[in-house]
Amino acid sequence: MAAPDWQLAAFALTVLIGIIGGLIFVVLRMGSEEKAKAEPEARGQQRKRGALDRMQRGVARATAAEGEEEADEDEDGQDRGERRNAQKEQKKQEKKAAQQADKRQREQKEANKSEKQQKYTEKQQEREAERLRKEQEEQKAKLEKEQKEKEEFDQWKQMFAVEAEGEMDDGRDASVVERFIEHIKIRKVVNLEDLAADFQMRTTSVIDRIRELEKLNRLSGVLDDRGKYVYISPEEMTAVAEWLKRRGRVSRTDLIAACNRIIRLNPTEADKAKLDEEARLAADALEVTEEA
Are strands 228-231 and 189-191 parallel, antiparallel or unpaired? Predict the structure, then answer.
């Protein structure tokens, strides 16, 4: 007996569902296998991509590091260049400052030298002015002294003029003064009475004249108590003074001995010749007078 249609349809549907289920299973199985195969490949690809990424990142880091190093080197080079430039500029400034300091020092030395030279010149000028002033004062004093001495001498000459006592002739006063001084200097030691007789004067007048001449520095000597005058030259006075300075305190005996040794009491040979000539002239004059 034939089966109903609905059963056949159910059977066909069941078979169809089984076929479809089998197909689905096969498809799923194949998808699983492909997925299983694809996963390792994906992981490999992923690992490759990771390695590549890591390599790229490493390269990037290396590049960055190199860039940083280059930048650092550039910066270091720039810094070194700047430092060298700064050092050069500093040395230049220091050299310039040293040159300026040296220049100021030289200028200060020149200024000090000029100031010292100016002070020295001013001091020299002051000294020269003081010297000229002293010379002028000395010259003035000398002229005044000479004038005073001349006036005193002119007054003193009048003392030799003929007075009421008639001691000498007119017109011979000037020459008499010189002869009076020369007479004493040549003989060194003169008797006052003889000197008065030679010049036709009183002894007291002779003493006065000698003292006046000593004030005028025309004569220098000693009047002793025996009526004699001992002429002492300026050179002999200086020699005695130097001897006293060397010896200091001395006794009277030593002083007398030194004076006798230093002071000449006798005429020199030249003075003796002059005395002989005076004696000859006096004798000739006497003969002429007697003949007259």
Answer: antiparallel
The residues near 236 (Cβ < 8 Å, ≥ 6 apart) are: 262, 263, 264
> What's the CA angle centered on 255, arms 251 and 258, to 5 degrees?
140
For residue range 183-209, what is the model confidence (pLDDT) as tens digits?
888 888 899 999 888 888 888 988 998
Name 230's bridge partners.
Answer: 189, 222
**pTM for the full predicted model:** 0.41
Q: Which residues, at least 6 apart from 266, have a Cβ–Cβ distance to it below 8 Å?
A: 188
First to last CA, the chain: 248
Please state the φ and ψ torsions of residue 199, each to the nearest 5 degrees: -105, 15
184: exposed, middle or buried (Cβ count in 10 Å: 0-12, 13-18, 19+): buried
Helix-, strand-, coil-residue percentages of the chain, each rounded to 5:
80, 5, 15
